[in-house]
Specification:
This protein is of the alpha+beta class. 38% of the residues lie in helices and 21% in strands. Strands 2-1-3 form a three-stranded antiparallel β-sheet, covered by helices on one side. The radius of gyration is 15 Å and the shape is elongated. It starts with 9 loop residues before the first helix and ends with a strand.
Length: 110
């Protein structure tokens, strides 16, 4: 295991950025497609910060709601489900160096 103080190389930073972007795209797509019907009817919008850890094989290790969340309980549950339902994620060597991610899922009715 690497300690937090070890530097991540510039190449690794790019790999990490690409990996996180792929996670966000996959999760956001699911979240939009599965916007809770009741929330739509009530015109509920909000932002959910999801903090989650992945195992090296891409399986979900844990998931929690971050402090930057401003959403109803229904939207929070839907956001958690979006992360859980998409697991396992692609396995990637970068997960040996960084495996915790924080993403914002934005629920907005157009």
């Amino acid at each position: 295991k690497l300690s937090i103080t070890e530097e991540i190389s510039e190449i690794d930073v790019n790999i990490l950025k690409e990996y996180k972007n792929s996670l966000v795209a996959k999760i956001q797509k699911f979240a939009i497609k599965n916007y809770p019907k009741r929330s739509l009817n009530l015109m509920e919008e909000g932002t959910v910060e999801i903090i989650f850890k992945l195992k090296i094989d891409g399986n979900l290790e844990n998931i929690k709601i971050g402090a930057n969340t401003m959403a109803s309980e229904r939207l929070i549950k839907a956001a958690k489900k979006a992360v859980e339902q998409n697991a396992p994620y692609d396995s990637n060597k970068i997960l040996e160096k960084k495996n915790e991610f924080s993403i914002l899922i934005i629920y907005k009715i157009n």
